[in-house]
Amino acid sequence: MSKKILLHKRVTSVAKLGNTIYAGTLDGLMAGDTSENFHQIFSSNSTLNGHIVTLSAGADHILWVANNKAELIAVTGDKITAVINDRNGLQCNRISVIKTSSRFIWVGTDKGLYAINNKAPYNIVRHLTYITGLNNNQINCLDVHNGRVWIGTPDGINYFEEQDIFEQVSEPNLIINSIRNGNITLPISWNPITLPQKTLAIDFDIIDYSSGQKPLYQYRLNNDSVWINLDNSKLYFPSVPYGSFTISIKALSPNWKNSAHCTLAFYHPYPFYLRWWFLISASLILIGCIVGIVALFIKRVRTKDKEKIATQRNLLQLEQMALQGKMNPHFIFNCIAGIKQYYSNGDLEKANSFVDEFASLIRQTFDMGTELFVSLDKELNYLTRYLSIEQTRFNDSFDFTITKDLTISESFIYIPTMLLQPVVENAVRHGVRHLTNRRGEIKINVVQKNERIEITITDNGVGRQKSSSFGRMYQNIIRLTSSTVNTKRIDILNQLFEQQIINITEDILNEQNEVIGTRVLISYPMNIHQLQH
Questions:
Q1: In what order do the strands lie in the sheet with 95-100?
Q2: What mean pLDDT is predicted for residues 68-75?
Q3: N or C terminus of the chain: which is more exposed, having fewer CB within 10 Å?
Q4: Between helices 348-369 and 376-393, what is the axis angle to 10°?
Q5: Are 442 and 403 in contact (CB under 8 A)?
Q6: 318: buried, middle or exposed (CB in 10 Å: 19+, 13-18, 0-12)?
Q7: Per-residue pLDDT reduced to its tens digit, 81-94
Q8: Residue 184 and residue 373: Cα distance in Å, rounded?
């Protein structure tokens, strides 16, 4: 007889399924054929990589494999399609033999014989032990022939018909022995049980074991959670959830028609800091604190901003008044020059009259010099006196008129002090003063438009460009003390009053496009004296 060695490795079990030969070894499952083409069919992460105990060829091209972890594994081709272990009720330490019939998968173990449905999901149908008639719980070998099951044990052979396994007993009752919440033992009730403390321990039991070993215990928290296996009949929660919840306990055995189960309802009161009224109150208090802190912060920032703005305004006002004061010596210088001229010419009457007018003007200038705003009537009165003096100084060579179109009294309308005087001075000294072919004329028109005051100062002088050619040195002095200073004053006032003052200067042209005078428009809000606050 010729011998052929297919696999040079220790083999624990062999099964042939179709044209494939499967070999169970100490380090995994091998597959091959008669040409010695054997290979390990599962990776190192597979449950079939270790010691294979036994194999059996089943229906539907399924190979049933038992490993040394007491797991029954269904293999189809190179894939694991099912695993049956203690989580499914297969409670044993070792699987020794597997046999398949048309209806069942018979599994011999050290804890008795299990019958498993031969169709997915492969539920355990019956568990046979010494109590149910076997000679011994240790199953060494078995065979199935014509619906009869033969079992070999250390104490002999048993046999029975497959149909007899359907004679199952009714399930026993599951009873609750005790319920402890922390150090308190609570009365057992099927109504919701109130839990004053966090921990919960439930001790339960089954009165009768029909198969000689304990059933498979499982529990779940609330109805929507999965079932979790238990090692014994004691359930412990170190911390239970707040509010209402249920705990369901279930015991399963293949020898029972139905599982034994019960459901307990509990209520764990929320602590005060998790109750709705406290959370709402705390949220409102927190929001109030945040709003208060933010408001305080904003108030402080605004206060600092106001203080900063006030300081800036004060500095600008002081600078404005200082610039305003620079013009006073210029008035005095010009007027003294005029008085000196009268005395030099021997015209004492005009000199004395001029001195009186000059003294009144100086007194009014000093009175207004310390104020940021004056009423419009005071400003216009000051201009009238100033123009009268200038008219006298220049030998009555020009006329002036002041017209008003106001809906309210000019005594209630305010204007920045001496805002108009430098413009009128320019009209006299740069405009009408240099006329030789016509009499000079200066017109001041005050109009109220909506909430603004518009003041137009018009002269029929030589114009700005031509006047610059007269007396360059004298003109430089005038520009320094009048035009430049007043322009800077208006810039500072606009910083104080948010660019509210409009100042436009333009030449007046005739039909031949010749300059025949100058027009200055000054516009500002009626309430300008209030904007600084």
A1: 95-100, 104-109, 112-117, 124-128
A2: 91
A3: N
A4: 150
A5: no
A6: exposed
A7: 899 988 888 889 99
A8: 87
- In angstroms, the CA 166 to CA 255 distance is 9
Longest dimension (CA), the chain: 169
> Which of 104, 131, 166 is at the close of a domain?
166
- In this prediction, residue 207 has a pLDDT band, given cuts at 50, 70 and 90, of low
Q: Point out the least confidently predicted range of 7-21, 386-400, 457-471.
A: 457-471
Q: Can you give the three-state secondary structure of 142-205, one letter per residue?
A: EEEECCEEEEEECCEEEEEEHHHHHCCECCCCEEEEEEEECCEEECCCCCCEECCCCCEEEEEE
State residue 478's pLDDT score.
43
Same-domain status, 309 and 261:
no
Domain termination residue (choose one: 149, 166, 183): 166
Same domain, yes or no: 155 and 206: no
- Which segments within 450-529 are labelled E, that is strand? 452-459, 502-509, 515-525
Facing residues of 377 across strands?
Answer: none
Residues 262-295: pLDDT tens digits? 899 999 988 877 777 788 888 889 998 999 899 9
**Do 513 and 502 touch, CB atoms closer than 8 A?**
no
Q: Within a domain: residue 49?
A: yes
Give the confidence band of 168 by pLDDT, cuts at 50, 70, 90.
low
Predicted confidence at residue 458, as pLDDT, reads 95
* DSSP, res 480: I
Residue 285 lies in a domain: no
127-131, 219-223, 503-507: lowest mean pLDDT where? 127-131
Q: Please list, in sequence order, all residues whose beta carbon lies within 8 angstroms of the beta carbon of residue 19, skipping any fewer than 6 positions away.
A: 33
Cα–Cα dist 340/356, whole Å: 14
Which residues, at least 6 apart from 376, have a Cβ–Cβ distance to it below 8 Å?
410, 411, 413, 414, 415, 446, 453
DSSP 256: B
- Give residue 4's pLDDT band: very low, low, confident or very high (50, 70, 90): low
Shared domain check, 524 and 410:
yes
Per-residue pLDDT averaged across 303-331, rounded?
62
pLDDT of 43 reads 60
The helices-and-strands tally (H runs, E runs) of the chain is: 8, 31
- Work out how many domains the chain is built from and give that number: 3
Among 69-83, 292-306, 354-368, the least confident range: 354-368
**Structural domain span for residue 122:** 11-166
Decide if 422 contacts 519 (C-beta within 8 A). Answer: no
Q: What Rg do the C-alpha atoms of the chain give, in angstroms?
A: 58
pTM above 0.85, yes or no: no
The answer for residues whose C-beta is within 8 angstroms of residue 359's C-beta and 6 or more apart is: none
Specify the DSSP class assigned to residue 60: T
